[in-house]
Amino acid sequence: MELIQEQFKMTIKKIILLLSIFYYNTSINSQNIHSENTLGENYTIKSKILKEDRQIQIFIPESYEKTDEKFAVLYLLDGQRLFPFGVSLLKSFTQFKQTPEFIIVGITNKYPDRFGHFSDEEKKFLTFIEEDVISFVDNNFRTSNERLIFGWEYGGSFVIQTMIDRSDLFDAYLVASPFPLTNKISELDKFLSKKMIPDKMLYFSVSPNENQVNVGIKKLDSLLKLKASKTLNWTYKELENEEHRSTPYSTIYSGVKNFYQYYPELQFNNLEEFTNAGGLNYVNEYYKKRALEYGFSSKLSDWTMFSLTRNAIRANEYKQFNILVNEFEKTGFLERIRINRSCLIAEFYLANKQYDKSIEIFNLLAEKHPNAERPLKGLGDSYNALLDKRKASIYYGKAKKLSKSKSD
């Protein structure tokens, strides 16, 4: 009897333990929800040209379903590796308004097949891209006539050959660490000797420590310097801090930005960069080209005007600062930009003892932003510098009263 009771107790304990585990797992699952993390869609193309099924990856931009617009397409060779990076890059570009939105297509290439597709079978593979991939994308998505293609290593060599054979197929040819390249120089020479080369962009880059890759790149660079026509917009960039396997990422980033160089609002890192570019004449020409290419206003954006002014403040260049503010004030930008940015401008006038100007701007801001303390304190500082203690005290008092009411 005692044995039966002991077994019964053990059974009860096991049941309680199992119920506890079940409850714990149920509790965990109820608190954490998981779902698949996907980037775009996979499509399988039955290619008669390659006589095999080929997978491509396609990502459409966020606004695709919200508009009837047509979109440019960026084709990435070796999509199995570079497609996720391309998607991430697009999200960053569009969030910060560096480029328009575009469709991304990753063309998967398996090892070691890619080496044959990009060399001995390059003409067949180009036919596959044109007749199978591009045709599929254009027939199933709203695409514009604007296309970009990127390739790395053997894929980069393939992209250059594509430009030679079918320069009409893409608008931009982006290339990282192309190899082998020396055997294409004579063909490229003939291509560059043509009288009418379409208006295209070639952007290529390499790490300085890629041995045989560098040999071909130097020949390419020398030939382009000697024979490239004005209609071929080409750029060669040496990537000092990269190596062979990392050059694709810098090249896609910089190449796409280069292609859409007139899309973002213009900004300079410092005053020297602005001066070397050509000053306001360059800025005005940039906005004219931007308007022509993308339909934006040809007027300077508020961000460009403020960032230029801020560069002068950071450089402590009052003369250049005053020229810029006097030019930009005509547009009313001081009233449109954020109050802290306008106050920064007024405070720089104050720091340079231009009290009439600082008072003028602070008064404008105090009137427009009656609940802001900073303009009131700025007026107090301006009158204090003029030794007008009575007015300074009035504005300090208003600022203090406003601060107290907010804290209450």
The CATH superfamily label of the largest domain reads: Alpha/Beta hydrolase fold, catalytic domain
Q: How many E strands?
A: 8
Largest sheet: 8 strands, mixed
Instruction: Return the average pLDDT rounded to an integer.
Output: 91
Output the CATH topology of the largest domain: Rossmann fold
Q: Name the CATH architecture of the largest domain.
A: 3-Layer(aba) Sandwich
Number of helices: 17
* Low-pLDDT stretches: none
Please, could you describe this protein's structure?
This protein is an alpha/beta fold. It is 56% helix and 14% strand. The protein has helices spanning 2-31, 79-95, 113-117, 122-140, 154-165, 185-192, 212-227, 247-259, 271-277, 279-294, 302-314, 318-328, 333-336, 339-351, 355-368, 373-385, 389-407; strands at residues 41-47, 52-59, 71-77, 102-107, 143-152, 172-176, 200-206, 232-238. An 8-stranded mixed beta sheet has the order 1-2-4-3-5-6-7-8, sandwiched between helices. Helix 2 crosses helix 8 and helix 16 (373-385) packs antiparallel against helix 17. The longest helix is centred in the N-terminal third of the chain and has 30 residues, at 2-31. The radius of gyration is 31 Å and the shape is elongated. The relative contact order is 0.06.
What's the arrangement of secondary structure elements?
Blueprint: H1 2-31, E1 41-47, E2 52-59, E3 71-77, H2 79-95, E4 102-107, H3 113-117, H4 122-140, E5 143-152, H5 154-165, E6 172-176, H6 185-192, E7 200-206, H7 212-227, E8 232-238, H8 247-259, H9 271-277, H10 279-294, H11 302-314, H12 318-328, H13 333-336, H14 339-351, H15 355-368, H16 373-385, H17 389-407
Parallel strand pairs: 3-4, 3-5, 5-6, 6-7, 7-8
Antiparallel strand pairs: 1-2, 2-4
Helix pairs in contact: 2-8, 6-7, 9-10, 11-12, 11-14, 14-15, 14-16, 15-16, 16-17
